[in-house]
Known about the structure:
Largest sheet: 10 strands, mixed
Order of helices and strands: EHEHHHHHEEEEHEEHEHHEHHHHH
Strand content: 5-15%
Number of helices: 15
Amino acid sequence: MHNQKKTGLVLSGGGARGAYQIGVLKAVSLILCEAGWATERNPYDIICGTSAGAINATALACHADDFGEGLQLVLKIWENFSVEQVYRADSLGVLRSGARWLSLLSFGWLLRRWHANPPNALLDNTPLVTLLHRMLNFPRLDAALLDGKLHALAVTASSYTGGQHITFYQSEADIAPWIRTQRVAMRAQIGVEHLLASSAIPLMFPATPLYCDGRRHYCGDGSMRQLAPISPAIHLGADRVFVIGAGRLHEPAHDSDVTARYPSLAQIAGHAMSSIFLDSLAVDIERMNRINLTLSVLTQAQRSQTQLRPVDMLIIAPSQRLDEIASRHTGSLPKPIRMMLAGIGATEVRGAALASYLLFESSYTSELIALGERDALARRADVLAFFDVTPAAPQSRS
Length: 398
């Protein structure tokens, strides 16, 4: 990388909502290409991801030597998604995981034979292992880091065992690990197991064992206990950060309804998921804006007395409610999954927030990609300013 400023890309978590990120990145690449960037040039020195964002981040990092090629690969996967690529959706698979898990919750005190080997999650995500091995080229990632095509890659997970939020990072640069309240960083050779852990949506997918400092930790989705989603990019050296959210950052309140019904299980679960995946990012963006504002009014001498530094940010997040979009596509889910989710109210409009994280179906993901493209193209001027790019002058016609 030859940029004076190091640019960080932060991809947040959100399950199937991760399709939106690819639409944004597609449009940003188009904007830069029209301004004169080569399609193979990687715009991001540092790539950080959480949950589905960790998978997108790693797939793009594996193609840092030809970013356009990597983006097309990931785009093709999201455009042609089906839930069977992520978790078992056949009747037998659902019976072995979801139905068995729900039955244990209801009648576990009667089912002694399950006490020694209880089901681990609502869904069986073993198909995701095959998909990750197919889409990721880790030797190519190693080469990109060694050749300077990429400065660092980071993915995050949450340890159920130790209670900490862990950032695993890979870089050829001499970057010391950092420790903060309830969060630590560890240098690692990132692999499929880190991505399985980072994307293990709580209760939906099983935890993954990871070894940290010689101790085994069972880890789940990195969005849990993620107090500062932007922090890893800054610790790894980013001077400016491009953040792509997985939900609206300033969600208007629903109109109050005097006839409101008691919330369904899916509605409560969706609310909890939104708290996990969306709230910490919005809070961290507010914190970064306050820090930038404070630093802007300090003198140079005062700035020299603090370790804080200003960080340019570009934030693009959905302009529409993704749960409302999901409610139009729940019918595309395989029947066994649809029936299981219907039992807890996830196929109703009010419970669609939960479905929005699990709807790995092309009808839904394609609509999110299109939304991401529109949202990014509407910010063309901001994108060009963020990357310090001058729009190419239109060619005159003789």
